């Protein structure tokens, strides 16, 4: 029989979770679900497993289905293991007019993966997404909270991929400067 490890948040993550929950009135703790799912994704390998969603539901004292509904609605949550760098490529009109479809095709060819797949070395996951709100600088993509814009040639795409191959994964979402001001 295989022993399963109980999923548990770190002390730092639990402190952040409690801080988010404290922003809402008693009985309204469900309102903290989005930042807590971000924390879960950062804590548990870049994706939110059913076990992680169950853990979040327990902390918020809500039904697991309520967490599943939120996690499956937003594309920012990964529901299966992902690579070190998740390449979220904008595929809406303005970026497509500037070459996003060609960029996706080049990424598929260069990385030998399809949309939603991860490279064999675990380095990249290709994830087309809806508008990333950088219409004037497309085609573009996002890795974590950072935008990479004007990737309008194969040369620029190759430079980007090389940069990513040599980049360490940044601080998890819930500990970035972006969210420190939310506390």
Q: How would you characterize this protein structure?
A:
This protein has helices spanning 11-21, 33-43, 50-60, 64-73, 93-97, 100-111, 154-165, 177-180; strands at 85-90, 124-129, 141-143, 146-148. It has 183 residues and is α+β, with helices and mostly antiparallel strands. It folds into 2 domains: 11-73, Orthogonal Bundle (Arc Repressor Mutant, subunit A); 85-165, Glutaredoxin. Strands 2-1-3-4 form a 4-stranded mixed beta sheet, covered by helices on one side. It is elongated.
Layout of helices and strands:
Layout: H1 11-21, H2 33-43, H3 50-60, H4 64-73, E1 85-90, H5 93-97, H6 100-111, E2 124-129, E3 141-143, E4 146-148, H7 154-165, H8 177-180
Parallel strand pairs: 1-2
Antiparallel strand pairs: 1-3, 3-4
Helix pairs in contact: 1-2, 2-3, 3-4
Using brief descriptors, characterize the structure shown.
single chain, 183 residues, alpha+beta, Arc Repressor Mutant, subunit A, Glutaredoxin, four-stranded mixed sheet, 8 helices, 4 strands
Gist?
With 183 residues, the protein is α+β, with helices and mostly antiparallel strands. It contains 8 helices and 4 strands, in the order H-H-H-H-E-H-H-E-E-E-H-H. Helix 1 runs antiparallel to helix 2 (33-43), helix 2 crosses helix 3 (50-60) and helix 3 (50-60) crosses helix 4 (64-73).
Number of domains: 2
Highest CATH level, the class of the largest domain: Alpha Beta
Percentage of residues assigned to helices: 40-55%
The total of beta strands comes to 4
Uncertain segments are: 171-183
Q: Could you give the order of strands across the largest sheet? A: 2-1-3-4
Report how far the terminal alpha carbons are from each other. Answer: 43 Å
CATH topology of the largest domain: Glutaredoxin
How many strands, which pairing sense, and closed or not: the largest β-sheet?
4 strands, mixed
What is the alpha-carbon Rg in Å?
A: 18 Å
| SSE pattern | HHHHEHHEEEHH
Q: Superfamily at the CATH H level of the largest domain?
A: Glutaredoxin
CATH architecture of the largest domain: 3-Layer(aba) Sandwich
Strand content: 5-15%
Structural class: alpha+beta
Oligomeric state: single chain
Basic shape: elongated
Please, what is the average pLDDT?
88
């Amino acid at each position: 029989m295989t022993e399963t490890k109980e999923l548990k948040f770190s002390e730092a993550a639990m402190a952040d979770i409690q801080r988010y929950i404290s922003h809402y009135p008693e009985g309204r703790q469900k309102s903290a679900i989005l930042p807590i799912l971000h924390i879960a994704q950062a804590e548990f390998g870049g994706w939110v497993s059913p076990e992680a969603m169950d853990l979040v539901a327990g902390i918020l004292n809500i039904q697991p289905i309520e967490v599943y509904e939120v996690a499956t609605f937003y594309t920012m949550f990964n529901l299966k293991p992902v690579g070190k760098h998740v390449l979220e490529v904008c595929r809406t009109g303005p970026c497509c007019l500037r070459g996003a479809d060609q960029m996706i095709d080049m990424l598929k060819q260069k990385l030998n993966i399809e949309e939603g797949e991860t490279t064999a070395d675990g380095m990249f996951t290709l994830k087309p997404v809806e508008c990333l709100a950088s219409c004037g600088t497309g085609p573009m993509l996002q890795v974590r909270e950072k935008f990479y814009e004007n990737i309008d040639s194969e040369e620029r795409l190759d430079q980007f991929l090389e940069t990513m191959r040599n980049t360490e994964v940044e601080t998890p979402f819930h500990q970035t400067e972006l969210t420190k001001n939310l506390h």
